[in-house]
């Protein structure tokens, strides 16, 4: 590990991060998520987790193609499930009882469709175009 770019948190940064994570954990309705967030806050404050700034040029900062599209999740009274859709691909949808699973499902489906489009040489829909 390259320790050259590691940023040791100041006391003010510790307090800010702890307050933000604690507030989020208190406000989330998911007990498991709250526990995970509190655990992360404790690891950051204790120094178990070190924060390293990313380079702006880093390829990990670039979104994958499927992240550029406009996703929506809504509850369907007809199916009694959450329906995830993507504006730029109106024929695609993903249903699940859990809205996060529905969103992950539609994003994975869009990634697969984009791979198919790339293989056929077609032009994918422009992000943000309705």
List keywords for this structure.
130 residues; 3 helices; 2 domains; disordered N terminus; alpha+beta; 3 strands
What does this structure look like?
By secondary structure, the protein is an alpha+beta fold. It has 2 domains: 44 residues; 58 residues, no CATH class. The protein has 3 helices and 3 strands, in the order H-H-E-E-E-H. The protein has a 3-stranded antiparallel β-sheet, covered by helices on one side. Strand 2 and strand 3 form a beta hairpin. Helix 1 runs antiparallel to helix 2. 8% of the residues are buried. The N terminus is likely disordered.
What spatial form do the alpha-carbon principal axes imply?
Answer: flat
Report Rg: 20 Å
Tally of contiguous helical segments: 3
Order of helices and strands: HHEEEH
Number of beta-strand segments? 3
Q: Estimate the strand proportion.
A: 15-25%
Estimate the mean pLDDT confidence. 80
The largest pleated sheet is described as: 3 strands, antiparallel
Task: Describe the structure concisely.
The protein is an alpha+beta fold. The protein contains 3 helices and 3 strands, in the order H-H-E-E-E-H. The protein has a 3-stranded antiparallel sheet with strand order 1-2-3, covered by helices on one side.
Describe the SSE topology.
Layout: H1 11-27, H2 31-46, E1 71-76, E2 81-86, E3 89-96, H3 99-120
Antiparallel strand pairs: 1-2, 2-3
């Amino acid at each position: 590990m390259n320790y050259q770019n590691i940023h040791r948190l100041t006391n003010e940064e510790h307090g800010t991060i702890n307050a933000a994570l604690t507030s989020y954990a208190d406000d989330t309705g998911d007990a498991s998520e709250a526990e995970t967030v509190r655990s992360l806050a404790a690891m950051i404050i204790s120094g178990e987790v070190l924060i390293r700034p990313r380079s702006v040029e880093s390829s990990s900062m670039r979104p994958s193609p499927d992240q550029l599209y406009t996703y929506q999740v809504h509850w369907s009274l007809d199916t009694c499930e959450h329906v995830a859709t993507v504006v730029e691909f109106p024929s695609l949808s993903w249903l699940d009882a859990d809205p996060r699973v529905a969103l992950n499902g539609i994003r994975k489906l869009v990634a697969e469709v984009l791979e198919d489009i790339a293989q056929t040489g077609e032009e994918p829909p422009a992000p943000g175009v309705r």
